Structure formats: C-alpha cells, structure tokens
Amino acid sequence: MFKNIKIENFRCFKSFELQQLGRINLLVGENNSGKTSILEAVQLLCSRTNFEPLSKIMANRSEYVRDDDDDSRGIGLLLDVKHLFYGHEIEPESQFSISGINDNEEEKMTVSIRTRDLNPRNNHIGESNQEFPGFDESLIELRELNFSVIWTYQDKQEISTLPLSINGGLALIRTRQYRQNPNKKVVRTQFVTSSSLNSKQMIELFDEVVLTPEEKLITEALQTIEPKIERIASVTSNKFRNSELKTGFVVLLSDSTQRLPIGSMGDGMWRILGLALAIVCAKDGVLFVDEIDTGLHFTAMSDMWKLIWKTAKRLNVQVFATTHSSDCWTSLASIAREEDAAEDGITIQRIEKDKNTAVSFNEREIVIAAEREIEVR
User: Fold this and answer.
1) Measured distance CA(59)–CA(73) in Å, rounded
2) Beta-bridge partner residues of 289
3) What is the CB neighbour count within 10 angstroms for residue 91?
4) Can you give the pLDDT at residue 176?
5) Start and end of every AAA+ ATPase domain (predicted)?
C-alpha cells in the first residue's frame, strides 16, 4: 500500500503531498481544490508506462484538441496533453512527476515533453509558412515533440514514448494501440467516476466475477439497498454491452418470480453495484472513486463503508475516494469506531487550496471529530 504520495507540476498542483495514508483514504475539500486530480495522479503512478488509464482520464474530461496537421488526419481524436501540466502550457523539457512510498520502497513516474528529430522529407512546414498569414511559428517547435513516460522502482526502469502532433495533441487511437508487456506485473486499478460506470464497463467487470467466490459479495452489496434481492445476472446482448445507459442487468427478488431490470430500482442500486464490482476487480490493487456518495441515501452510507472496508481488507485493496458530504465522512467515522482499523488505517485527507500538504486525520481523530461535530471538510 502507498503510505505517502507526492505530486509535482501536475494539473492544479505545483507541489503537493499526501501523508500517513491508510487502506481507506477519503479526500475532502472545497470545489476545485484538486481532489479528482489527486485520484488521477495516483492511478497514473500505478499504471506505470501504460497509456490506457491516461487516455481514459483525459477522455472523461473531454480534453481534446483539434489538429489540422496533414500527418494527423485520419487518426481520430487527439488528447490535449497540456492540461496535464501545471499552468496548462507545454514546451520542450516540461515535465510533471508523481511519486510514492509503496511497501517501504519509492516508485516514481515522470512525464516529460522531449524534442525528437524529424524526417527531412516531412520538414516542409518551414518552407511554406510564408504562404499562410498569421502562421504561428511556435507550432514548428511543437511538431518536434514527444510525450515521454518514465517509471522507476528500485533498480527497475520502464520508458514509453509517443509522438505529439503539430498542436501538441496525443492521438487517442495510439494510446489504445500501445499495449503493456503482458509479462510485466502491473498493479490493478479501477476508477469509478462521479457519473458511475456505464453498462459496457459493468458487464465486463461482472464477467470477471461471475462463478467466482467473489460473486456472492456482489449480491450482498445489493442487499444493503434491497434485502429481498436473491440473484443478479447480466443480459448478454451486444446492444447492452455498447450502451451508455444504466441497463444490461436483471435481479430476482425473494417475493417475486419476475426478473426486474436493475434500472427500475434507482440510481443507488446502480451505484452500489458499480462500487462492488470495481472493488472486487481491483483485487491486490487500488480502487479510485470520485464522489463516492453519489446516488446513495445517507442511511445507506454506513453499510456502503462497511462493504468497502471488509472487502478491501479481504482482497487487499487500497481505496482512494472523494466526497463533499458530511453524511459520508461521519458514516466513515462509525466504521473507524466499530472496526479494528488501526492496523491498516482509515484516513481523511483534507485538501486545501494553496496548501502543499493535505491535512491528515487518523481513525481516532475522525471519531473525535464526528462525536464533537467538528467540521473536517
């Protein structure tokens, strides 16, 4: 597990550090304080040189750039990588880094913008730029840039590089075509956004769980919302697998013989299903949840945290989540009070703008804050 994380020049953070992390870490703070960016940073560190999580992170934020470069036509969407860097600007040698102490060893991911040599036959921009009034000379320099990722751990190092387009765009299709070496052990991660997982993602995760010992955990999770649920199944149809809607699953209740679409049972049921699938499929890895309380009534939050805590311990998962809800963190306090959390740790990390270190609350401090109605957000 990570015990601390340091972020430099990533998104809104010039320099920022999380300390005294535990198995469950709830990030609180004002809007636009960078909570989601911290989740993204830790996931990128876990992903090493695999570009797929990075592409999903940027796609979720719609961070695209239009590029009319001849060499870029036909390769689809381009990710505007400058938004990953502090100040939203890039130039040669720009870089950001994310490091952490993981099981008493430091690992670090450094992303940098590097200059590359151009093939002379493609070097036609400088010859023709006089024909275009207002041509931006700085674009010539951008055309020569690479997006480089270096991951280091002990004496190991991995390096991956992809070219940037004339406008500093990273081709989405190239990030997806770039495959991690299957022989390399990579930490498993799951990221649940504030809008939850879609049907395609949920069905793919359910396929990993079905007919395994963890399948029972999924049913138990749903029973925290509706105790009558006896079984859940996916509807294996391609139209559901490619759907962005909350569909593709049916449940059976103890007092009925009919299969009920899970969408009929409300947003809370969909949310808890997504959380349960994500944490089970993050076994021996890390789960990230943005606005974990979304769609859940305050009366269900204690059961949700109990599910997260017990499953995280059983399957060796470290959890990072965010919230704006006082009900959410006070419900976590009840778990810290009731459970033996001292060994692995439950923390609240308060993120404050213009501060370079999070304010960390351990189990005892969380319980005291809840009992005395002290605001930690």
Assistant:
1) 19
2) 192, 321
3) 13
4) 74
5) 21-352
